[in-house]
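Q: Please design a sequence for this.
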């Protein structure tokens, strides 16, 4: 059977390994690629000086690599197969493989880490995490005192502070490995310039102070809330760790997307929201990219995907990763959303009670119509209850145009004060705004 892109993709143990393999299937990442019809081998260059040795035996589809990955086949094996499928006429011929390839073929493809190596790696991870927590605890004490000083001096003094006042302390939080706190503080200067800036700033300060207090007693918090607090401070689990958790298999509809850029370092991000057909579960997939580089994955709003999602741990899990997935052409038969604004408000209250630092919450309303009052746009349900649309979202006018004043099924992101619309469902299809 030919080694097509589809066949190689089907071998990937999960989407993360596949994503990394795609990036490694470049000529500049490989050296010494050769084969003899039955065997293919090559050395993959890592970010440092290390070369990973990879060998493939086509007859029985045996794969070996010395990277000691917990996944099989690993990203190096898949990358070599991708390279082979695209450059088969450029592969050098060698009758006999090198000694390292012969040795790898004699070894088991399964677990290659010894118990001693496993123990040493785990001890190293624990030590590094402990060192980071010590640094964060020092930064958290500084954060607590800084917030109290702001409150003591009064919010009126904030107008007099130059941007460097906020940026300087935010940088100190980043240095203390508390990137999440630093990002919130950089946002303070933006809030201070708004019409109701004092009110918004006081709310943000109170929320950040609550986070600092929670971090002080991290070990006494429930495990799920510990995950929330660490995540808010900037400690993110590695994708490999998340993918070891149980997953949820369903057909997932891409409901909407939002993109932005981190002012601090130019990192672009994209949020894609999915709805489970059977589970009715809402899930958030985050993608990142630097500069003008394209995202590694492409999600089509309105498209359906069959696959298994794994959620990041937390008290109200929303963020997730696909362990595996494939596009689906079958019509989506999922739920239509919250029947009323009141039903959504109750769901949001439950989520906030579980995770008090929830900053964005997905909102799918079954039947609402846009209305304008005193220059403000609202979505109104059949009971006359309304929810405000964000004045900072240009998509609110698109929603008004698409609906034509008629009831629609609307989806967006709720930040606790207003809804930023992302899509509407019209005539059975999702229309991005």
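A: Design:
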């Amino acid at each position: 059977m030919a080694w097509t892109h589809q066949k190689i993709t089907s071998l990937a143990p999960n989407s993360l390994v596949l994503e990394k393999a795609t990036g490694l299937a470049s000529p500049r990442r490989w050296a010494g690629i050769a084969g003899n019809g039955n065997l293919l081998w090559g050395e993959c260059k890592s970010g440092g000086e290390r070369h990973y040795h990879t060998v493939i035996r086509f007859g029985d589809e045996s794969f070996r690599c010395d990277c000691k990955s917990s996944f099989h086949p690993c990203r190096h094996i898949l990358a070599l197969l991708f390279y082979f499928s695209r450059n088969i006429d450029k592969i050098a011929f060698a009758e006999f493989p090198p000694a390292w390839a012969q040795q790898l073929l004699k070894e088991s493809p399964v677990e290659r880490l010894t118990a001693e190596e496993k123990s040493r790696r785990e001890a190293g991870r624990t030590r590094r995490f402990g060192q980071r927590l010590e640094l964060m605890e020092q930064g958290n004490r500084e954060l607590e005192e800084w917030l109290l000083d702001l409150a003591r001096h009064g919010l009126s003094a904030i107008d007099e502070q130059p941007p460097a006042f906020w940026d300087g302390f935010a940088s100190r939080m980043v240095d203390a490995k508390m990137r999440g706190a630093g990002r919130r503080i950089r946002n303070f200067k933006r809030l201070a310039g708004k019409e109701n800036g004092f009110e918004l700033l006081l709310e943000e300060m109170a929320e950040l102070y609550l986070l600092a207090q929670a971090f002080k007693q991290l070990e006494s918090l429930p495990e799920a809330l510990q995950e929330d607090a660490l995540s808010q401070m900037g400690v993110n689990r590695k994708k490999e760790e998340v993918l070891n958790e149980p997953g949820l298999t369903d057909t997932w509809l891409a409901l909407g997307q939002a993109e932005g850029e981190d002012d601090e370092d130019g990192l672009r991000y994209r949020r894609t929201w999915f709805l489970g057909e059977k589970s009715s579960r809402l899930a958030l997939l985050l993608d990142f990219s630097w500069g003008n580089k394209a995202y590694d994955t492409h999600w089509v709003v309105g498209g359906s995907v069959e696959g298994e999602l794994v959620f990041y741990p937390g008290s109200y899990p929303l963020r997730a990763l696909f362990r595996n997935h494939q596009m689906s052409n079958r019509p989506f038969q999922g739920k239509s959303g919250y029947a009323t604004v009141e039903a959504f408000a109750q769901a949001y209250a439950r989520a906030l009670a579980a995770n008090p630092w929830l900053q964005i919450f997905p909102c799918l309303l079954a039947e609402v119509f846009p209305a304008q009052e005193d220059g403000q746009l609202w979505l109104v349900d059949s009971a006359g209850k309304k929810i405000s649309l964000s004045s900072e979202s240009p998509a609110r006018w698109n929603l008004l145009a698409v609906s034509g004043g008629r009831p629609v099924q609307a989806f967006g992101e709720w930040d606790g004060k207003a809804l930023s619309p992302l899509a509407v469902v019209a005539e059975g299809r999702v229309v991005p705004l």
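Q: Thanks. Anything notable?
A: The longest strand covers residues 248-261. The two ends are 44 Å apart (CA to CA).
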